[in-house]
Design goal:
Shape: globular
CATH architecture of the domain at 317-452: Orthogonal Bundle
Protein name: Rab-GAP TBC domain-containing protein
CATH topology of the domain at 317-452: Cyclin A, domain 1
Order of helices and strands: HHHEHEHHHHHHHHEEEHHHHHHHHHHHH
Domain Rab-GAP TBC: 154-389
GO molecular function: GTPase activator activity
Strand content: under 5%
Radius of gyration: 23 Å
Distance between the termini: 36 Å
CATH superfamily of the domain at 317-452: Ypt/Rab-GAP domain of gyp1p, domain 3
Strand order of the largest sheet: 3-4-5
CATH class of the domain at 317-452: Mainly Alpha
InterPro entries: Rab-GAP-TBC_dom, Rab-GAP_TBC_sf
Largest sheet: 3 strands, antiparallel
Helix content: 40-55%
Number of strands: 5
Pfam families: RabGAP-TBC
Number of helices: 24
Amino acid sequence: MPPSSFPHQPTQAQLNLAALAGSSSPRTIRSLRKIQSHQILSSKPSMSGLPSQPSTARSSAGPDELSQPQAQLDSPVRLRMHRRTRSNSDASSRDPPAIATQRRPGRKTGSGFGIKRSVLESLLRDGPQQGNIQEGLQELRYLILSTRVEADADGMSTYRVYLWLVLLDIPPVSTDEYLSLIHQGRSPAYTKIRNDTFRTMATDPLFKRRVTEASLIRLLNAVAWKLHDAKNRTRLKPRPSLSSRRREMEQLINTPPSIMEEPDPRQSTPSTTGSYITTDSAIYVQGMNVLCAPFLYAARSEVEAFALFHSFITRECPGYIRGAMDGVHRGLRLVDRCLEIVEPKLAAYLFSKGLQAELYAFPSVLTLCACTPPLPEVLHLWDFLFAYGPHLNILCIVAQLIRMRDTLLESPSPNKILRSFPPLDAKEIIALTVLIVRKIPEPVYAELIEHAK
């Protein structure tokens, strides 16, 4: 495979958006963005109605961006349905004339000749007016919240992956870099990865139809090597010769998980939680396969999914992949605290039954709710989380509990209900999360921002 970047290169305007934080520390910029997002989401609603199209000349003052968030979210989502006329040649001669000209919804691609782009896609492709990157990012977040990303019934969108790359500030990755990690062969966490991948979204036909287990193994193994090498730069494994690359790639996919590799002196040791750790961090923990799955589903190539997944877990939630998963446990404690603030009666009832979040919300925290189907709704929820901060996933979990409130309070055994959350409804969960944000005290919100670090 020749060296290349992503198969579909972002436009210059997209790269300008991605370079927003170029002159400052990435973590500082992300922290400021998340704090600003809190101010935006917690701003008081105005009495004006939702404009039919967002202005592209708004000032850069953040709180004005969502002057009426609840009104935006209460309005029905009206996705454009691009249609084409049915050909008369396939119409029955016995049908009345009206049937011959019946129009049916075409495949929603969002681009191409004769298809009108959405405002969100146009902004992403063309960039902000007058090159104002900060205003462009505010506009993107506004449109994600108010109109959603256009996608077909399977949740597929032609531009979602580029939107995620911009929002997470991730530059293109060379295909050669990804291939070099694959050519390193089996990582120390390979056996653990193979024991998890076949279970990844096993009952989701959409995921199984688009993503193969082989691609999931390759990506997770490459990320494991990337994390391993980052912690052992002075003792890197020698790269294999060109003649052995094909054999190692075949072994990577075909070796049964029951065959254990010989211990490597650089290999991390398994912890009591089943994670492989070097010093204080893991190169793979159980659950990373589910967290990785939506990236592979939405991306147009494994290289894009690799760039997104690796950058996300190392920059946004490194505490989730440490050996002790301390970031996940802090998030679970925050679920209990936030539920107690927002719905004290429900929290007291669950606590009286011995139901802390540690017992039922661990998968939802670790995977950003990707463990709860359907997958298209997960993608819409992630659009919101990447725009305003992944830390809001904690409040999205609280929102799901509030939506189950009556059922939980009426049940003598709420633990049975909490074993499986109801199907995701991204629009309703986001709307409720926006309301919850306003009730969270500033000190607790600051903990939300930092809990995954």
